[in-house]
Amino acid sequence: MNFTSFLTRQRNKYSSELVDDVRYWSLSAATYVYYVTISAVIKKYARGKTLDAGAGRLNGKLLLRDHVTEYTSMDVSNTDGMIDIVSDIQNMTSIPADTFDTVYSSQVLEHVPNPCKALAEIHRVLVPGGYAIISVPLLNGLHEEPHDYYRYTPYGLKHLMQEAGFEVEDECTAGGLCCFLSHPFSLVFICMFWSIPALRWVAWWINKLLIVHPVLWVENLTRLYRKFPSDVIVVGKKAGNSRLCI
Q: What's 187's DSSP letter?
């Protein structure tokens, strides 16, 4: 097993074991800023029946569950047996139109060959007046290869969502260049110790105190996130009168 494979395995282990734990989001400065930012967006817009499109290991469930009446996970595969609907986000034929009040899709569109089709499908399954909360990376290393196709600017994502029929309600960014550059160091440090019960939380606290918080301070001081955002978040609304599917 090479070092990259080891990191991937440990990263997946970390995600699975902390799937229902807010400490998951302190892996790095990048993940922490994303958590703070997306939590505020979800609190404002998520409601009713909600689809987590591209749910992966269900880390979005922790963010959504206190703000929605019903949570449904969807992904292209169901390796761990936790996914409610197995479907391709580009062709969600098993989901009728006008089904969900909210669709949340986090860090998925970069892995989709045809993001326009994916956004059109998200628009289709939303009820009139429903919201799509979409987040994508702008700064990120290659991951989940070979299915890593795109990076998005705020302008590019807004354009694609408008082309799919959405009215853009809100937009923001999360993290910046400092968060992006520090993420690999936090990732490697945590993964090196995660399989050692006696040391994993010692490493977690060292990382949080000596890497995550100092990086956040530098990020806020330099404000590099204004020109070099790590992640882009756009909220789109499906035209029509809101009608919650409760």
A: H
* Amino acid making up residue 239: A
Please list the alpha-helical segments (H only) found in the chain.
3-17, 29-45, 59-64, 115-125, 154-163, 177-193, 197-207, 213-222
29 Cβ neighbours under 8 A, 6+ residues apart:
175, 178, 179, 182, 183, 186, 211, 212, 215, 216, 219
166: Cβ contacts below 8 Å, ≥ 6 apart = 119, 123, 132, 236, 237, 238
pTM of the model: 0.93
Contacting residues for 128 by C-beta, under 8 A, at least 6 apart = 98, 238, 239, 240, 241, 242, 243
Q: Give residue 230's identity as a one-letter amino acid code.
A: S
User: Chain-centre distance of CA 201, in angstroms?
Assistant: 24
Phi and psi at 170, nearest 5°, equal -160, 155
For residues 37-47, one letter each, b for 16 or more C-beta atoms within 10 angstroms of the residue's C-beta and e for the rest, the string is bbbebbeebbb
* pLDDT tens by residue, 186-204: 999 999 999 999 999 999 9
Coil, strand, or helix at residue 109? helix
Beta strand pairing status for 85-86 and 100-106? Answer: unpaired
